[in-house]
Write a structure and sequence with these properties.
Layout lengths: L1 H16 L26 H13 L11 H20 L18 H16 L4 H12 L6 H20 L62 H13 L9 H9 L4 H15 L4 H29 L4 H6 L31 H15 L3 H4 L3 H16 L10
């Protein structure tokens, strides 16, 4: 499992190395919602993934200095290790238990592990999480196997939380000094944030990588290169607020991918897992691979972002007269369609990294024949997820 995760991170890092000024846009985030239907409750992995999405989409629930991918990774790693302790078809990720009965309830183990992780990470949601646990356990007949499953889930969760307790995620962000040379990341108009976000995140202990810079991509394109000129002019043309140059498909793509992109890849995976009736064990492994990869993606791309400190498009377009490139022209009034730019350096693009990883996990998953066999079917899943979760409501593009 560890080797596959590292391979996926390497693939996503290579793809992100090709990104320049362009950061893919993503669909707008939803607010609080119900955790799932009774049909989805039959798959506890999907159910608890939805519950965590409800939590992180609740305003103020997620600490501003802790990236939510950490919570998804810890929860799904615990679900995987708890279920796998019973199923015994794969190597454990982090927590190894012995002497577990094969007849123990995998569904009970998954629910208990998820509940205990989230109750620890989000104590303000204790009452809701307790109620969701009872809902998850209710369909399972009372028996020694059910009790054993709950015990396994709780034991794995306790160990997983202990092993991640001192991973550096609770450290204070590192003060940042903005540059002023061409290409340097600078605070962006119109809101001019005083500090960028997650300056400390590359120091968080990775989940599968050996270190944050293990697959650090090469630097962004040189300001005088054709690659830079092409990216600059594409963003300038298509990304301007109130612009009309985008095709309908480009505009739809912008609306779809606006928001916390890892959430949408989790929803795409929910759609796939339910549509193809993945077992609890298969679902546990899929979502663990997906979210452990995302968590390390974020650690790795923040390492790269704060290594290269590359300016955002709005800065580049305003200051194009200073870049010594005759193929770029300044526009001091240009603002991105999203309005406020995400407060961190542009390279590598977070959306490029996360999407490369999400697609790679779904395509490379051992049961991929059940999930996706072509880019066309993956695109169809994306559309279905968007239609379900967003109703294709008009949204503005957002850089990340």
């Amino acid at each position: 499992m560890r080797k596959l995760l590292i391979s996926l991170l390497f693939a996503s890092a290579c793809l992100s190395a090709q990104a320049s000024l362009v950061n893919a846009a993503s669909p707008a985030e939803k607010g609080p919602e119900t955790a799932g239907t009774s049909t989805e409750a039959l798959n506890p992995v999907v159910q608890w993934n939805r519950i965590l999405l409800v939590v992180v989409r609740t305003p103020g629930a997620q600490p501003a200095t802790i990236h939510p991918t950490r919570s998804f990774a810890i929860m799904h790693a615990a679900i995987y290790d708890a279920v796998n302790a019973i199923d015994r078809t794969h190597k454990p990720y982090l927590v190894r238990l012995s002497g577990i009965l094969r007849s123990a309830s995998q569904d009970a183990a998954a629910a208990a592990a998820a509940h205990d992780i989230l109750a620890s990470l989000y104590p303000n949601f204790q009452a809701m999480l307790d109620a969701q646990l009872q809902q998850s356990l209710a369909p399972i007949p009372e028996s020694a196997d059910k009790a054993e499953g709950v015990s396994v889930g709780s034991a794995v969760a306790a160990q997983a939380l202990f092993l991640r307790k001192h991973d550096g995620s609770d450290a204070a962000p590192i003060p940042y000094v903005f540059g002023n040379a061409p290409g340097d990341y600078q605070s962006t108009p119109p809101n001019f944030p005083k500090q960028p976000q997650f300056t400390h995140w590359s120091h968080v202990t990775p989940f599968a990588l050996e270190r944050a810079n293990q697959f650090r991509p090469g630097g962004p394109p040189v300001l005088t290169s054709d690659t830079y000129s092409d990216a600059f002019n594409e963003v300038k043309l298509l990304g301007i607020g109130g612009g009309t140059a985008s095709t309908p498909d480009q505009a739809l793509t912008g609306r779809f991918w606006n928001g916390a992109i890892q959430n949408y890849w989790n929803e795409i995976s929910q759609t796939a897992a339910l549509a193809h009736r993945l077992t609890t064990a298969e679902s546990a492994r899929l979502f663990a691979l997906l979210n452990l990869t995302f968590a390390d993606d974020v650690i790795a791309f923040y390492d790269a972002k704060y290594t290269y400190n590359f300016w955002r498009p709005v800065t580049a377009i305003h200051a194009a007269a200073t870049d010594n490139n005759p193929d770029t022209a300044a526009d001091p009034n240009w603002l991105p369609e999203v309005g406020n730019t995400t407060p961190d350096p542009s390279y590598p693009g977070a959306h490029a990294v996360i999407s490369a990883a999400g697609a790679s996990v779904l395509i490379s998953f051992p049961s991929s024949a059940k999930i996706v066999s072509s880019s066309a079917s993956l695109r169809k899943l994306c559309r279905e997820c968007s239609a379900r979760s967003q109703g294709f409501r008009p949204q503005r593009r957002k850089q990340h």
